[in-house]
Amino acid sequence: MDIAVVSKVLAFLFMRDKIRKILDMLESEIFQSNTQEEAKIIEKAKQDTLLYWKITAGISFIANGVNLFTPLIMHLMFPVELEFPICRYSFIPIKYKPIFLYPAYVYQCIGMTSHMLYNVNVDTFFLGILFLAIAQLEILDKKLKRVADIHQRTDEVQIHNKSTADRYAVQKINKCIKHYDEVCK
């Protein structure tokens, strides 16, 4: 087996495990929203990801369609030779080119469209992960701003004295530090 193939397979397996770990982390309890405000922040991140995917996919489909169908339309309407989008197949003898012209063109079109879809989805997937990480940092920011709020209630009991408030604040800061550590991972 070729070393390049082995290294690509290992890289894929390594990335697959990392992606699975990231998705498992996003489903963990620390990343779940506790308040309505946090849920809105996460929902906005999801909506932004979907919007970006729609924009990227739309532009990519239009560009791919123009790139694939313009030469075919020009070939069918005018006496223009059909140019392949990827490979010219110069190794095929001239007498066989008319036989393989359309099947080879369709084959290349399918390949280009598959690569386009792969690129759109991989790029927007990683952007979506970044949007969710940014949302978690916004949630963390809001939590840190509320740490010093001694009027906040915990377990339906009002905090009355300063030492209890300080202990409660330290607990909240520790939770925020753990949350930040998980976002960094």
From TrEMBL:
Where does this one sit in the cell? Cell membrane
A GO MF annotation of the entry reads: odorant binding
Query: Which of UniProt's keywords are assigned here?
Result: Cell membrane, Membrane, Olfaction, Receptor, Sensory transduction, Transducer, Transmembrane, Transmembrane helix
Q: Which GO terms describe its biological process?
A: signal transduction
* One GO cellular component, as annotated: plasma membrane
The record's listing under InterPro entries reads: 7tm6_olfct_rcpt
Signal sequence segment: none
Question: What membrane topology does the UniProt entry give?
Answer: Multi-pass membrane protein
Residues that span the membrane, as ranges: 55-78, 124-140
Q: What is this protein called?
A: Odorant receptor
Q: Which organism is it from?
A: Arctia plantaginis
Q: What is the lineage of its organism?
A: Eukaryota, Metazoa, Ecdysozoa, Arthropoda, Hexapoda
